[in-house]
Amino acid sequence: MEQKKIYEVAVYLRKSRDEASKDEDVLLKHETDLTDLVRKTNWR
Questions:
Q1: Burial class of residue 30, CB neighbours in 10 A (0-12, 13-18, 19+)
Q2: What DSSP string runs through the chain?
Q3: Cβ-contact 41, 7 below 8 angstroms
Q4: What is the pLDDT of residue 36?
Q5: With contact defined as beta carbons under 8 Å apart, do 27 and 13 qualify?
Q6: What is the pLDDT of residues 4-42, one digit of tens each?
Q7: Using CA atoms in the order 21, 23, 27, 30, what is the torsion angle rounded to 10 degrees?
Q8: Which among 11, 3, 9, 5 is positioned nearest to 28, based on CA atoms?
Q9: Among 4, 15, 2, 6, CA closest to 40
Q10: How far is CA 12 from CA 1, 2, 3, 9, 21, in A?
Q11: Distances from the Cα of 34 to the Cα of 1, 15, 38, 43, angstroms
């Protein structure tokens, strides 16, 4: 089976109830991690 290449992606951020009580900005960390992955893999 031929593997399809990914060119464009969407980043979805969601704050769960478990994360709501943390002081650290969890969404910012998730966004940073995901956008780093997007850049590293040359996605748009």
A1: middle
A2: -PPPPP----------GGGTT-SS-HHHHHHHHHHHHHHHTT--
A3: no
A4: 97
A5: yes
A6: 888 899 999 887 776 555 656 888 899 999 999 999 999
A7: -110
A8: 11
A9: 6
A10: 29, 27, 24, 10, 20
A11: 28, 14, 6, 11
Amino acid at 7: Y
Judge if pTM exceeds 0.85: no
Alpha carbon separation from 27 to 8, 34, 44 (Å, rounded) = 21, 10, 20
Amino acid at 10: A
Category of 39 on φ-ψ map: left (φ > 0), alpha (ψ -120 to 50) or beta: alpha
Nearest residue to 22 (alpha-carbon basis) of 12, 34, 30, 11: 30
